[in-house]
FAD assembly factor SdhE (Chelatococcus daeguensis), 86 residues
Amino acid sequence: MRRRRILYRAWHRGMREMDLIMGRFADAHLAQLDEEEIAEFERLIELVDKDLFSWISGSEPVPAAYDTPLFRRMRNFHADGAPARS
């Protein structure tokens, strides 16, 4: 149930670009995340789209509190050309 709620929230953020970034990452990785990573992903979901997008795109530096291994995986996943949702 928790993972389904996270997946929905990842795909329904408000900013279409962030829907694609968060949603595609969740589609590809959510099932393999451990409890700590799930909590971290939930924390990222709560962030303002504009801030998160600027960090992922590299237009703003990532604050140390959010520059986590999970964030870097998500940023790299997006940078490497995430597959389209089917």
Observations:
- The chain has five helices and no strands.
- The mean pLDDT is 90.
